[in-house]
Every structure is written in structure tokens, then in C-alpha cells.
Specification:
The chain has 4 helices and 6 strands. By secondary structure, it is of the alpha+beta class. α1 runs antiparallel to α3 and α1 packs parallel to α4.
Length: 193
């Protein structure tokens, strides 16, 4: 491909910059979704336990890799460890977490009743979710800024630079819209009684 001329290599450099920016923006949105999954709403969801780790034969393992986690009712999580010796480890991990949950066990399974959220707590959670979303939007805009700088440094003709800048702006708008949608869904979930 070395005989393709100078213009196409700069065109592909623009494409590479755009693709790198898009990859970073995807990660920003994915990270926000992960953060939101850990926010406890009034409903039971196995995902609130995703960040908790337990010591399993010297390895820090996610609860989902050492137990079956189910939600038999809207406000109940049941954890059935594959190895009963893990019950106290899992219980301790839940109690030490910032989730504010009180697990109970019968020697075979751990049950976690999810208490309904107070109005005050719902407002705090929404405020925190909005702050996280804004941080993600700023992150996406910073990625766009970095991309624009890289595009200008590439030394391409002005019309190609303008086209690449427009594409980067459309990409940015698209990811900002995704962040807004993720926030809107989480807000609705938090405020749902």
C-alpha cells in the first residue's frame, strides 16, 4: 500500500484519530453505566454486588463467580455460595460495603432484603447520578478537544480538517446523547417507588 500517495495516508490518519476518540468515548459511557449499576435503587438487582470481592482460595473474586445470585422478589436478593465456607466471607463483604444492606444467612444461603429508599435518599442518589453524568460529558468533550488538536497537527488540507472536525462533533453529540439517555433511565429507576 506504500504507493497510495500522501493524501490517503493523511486521510487514514484522520480516520485513526476519529476511531481512537470514538473508542475512548465508548469507554466513558461504559464506565458511567458501571457506576450507575452500583447505585442501589429501591429494587433488588444483582448488579449492585458487582464491585464486591470475596477472598476465595487467596484470590479476590466477584461474588457472581463464587455463588449463584438471584432475585426471587422485587426487594430480595438471594446469594447461594457454591462453597458453604464462603457464607461468612460474602456476608462480611456486603456489611463492609457502602451499600447499607443487612444480609442474613441460614447456613445455606444469604438473603438481602432491599429496604425502600427515603425521598431524601432518592434525591441524593439523583444528584450523584447527575454529577457522574456531567463528569462523563466533560470527559467526552475533552476527548473531542484532544482529537481536534491531533487533527490540526496532522497537517492535512483545510477541507479535510473541516470534514474531520464536523465528524468528530457529530460523534461527540452522539455520545453526549447516550450519556443523557443513560442518566434519564437511571433517574427514572431511582425515583420509581
Amino acid at each position: 500500500m506504500s504507493g497510495s500517495g500522501d493524501g490517503s495516508s493523511k486521510g487514514s490518519a484522520m480516520e485513526d484519530i476519529k476511531n481512537a476518540c470514538e473508542e475512548r468515548m465508548k469507554k466513558t459511557v461504559a464506565s458511567l453505566k458501571d457506576d450507575f449499576a452500583a447505585i442501589r435503587t429501591g429494587r433488588a438487582s444483582p448488579s449492585i454486588l458487582d464491585k464486591l470481592r470475596v477472598d476465595y482460595y487467596g484470590q479476590k473474586s466477584p461474588i457472581s463467580q463464587v455463588a449463584t445470585v438471584s432475585v426471587p422478589e422485587a426487594r430480595l436478593i438471594v446469594i447461594q455460595p457454591w462453597d458453604r465456607a464462603l457464607i461468612s466471607e460474602i456476608e462480611k463483604a456486603i456489611q463492609k460495603s457502602e451499600l447499607g444492606l443487612n444480609p442474613s444467612n441460614d447456613g445455606k444461603v444469604i438473603r438481602i432484603a432491599i429496604p425502600p429508599l427515603t425521598e431524601q435518599r432518592r434525591k441524593e442518589l439523583v444528584k450523584g447520578a447527575k454529577a457522574s453524568a456531567e463528569t462523563s460529558r466533560v470527559g467526552v468533550r475533552n476527548i473531542r478537544r484532544d482529537g481536534l488538536e491531533d487533527i490540526k497537527k496532522a497537517g492535512s488540507p483545510e477541507d479535510e480538517v473541516k470534514k474531520a472536525e464536523d465528524e468528530l462533533q457529530k460523534l461527540t453529540d452522539s455520545y453526549i446523547a447516550q450519556i443523557n439517555k443513560v442518566l434519564e433511565e437511571k433517574e427514572k429507576e431511582i425515583l420509581e417507588v
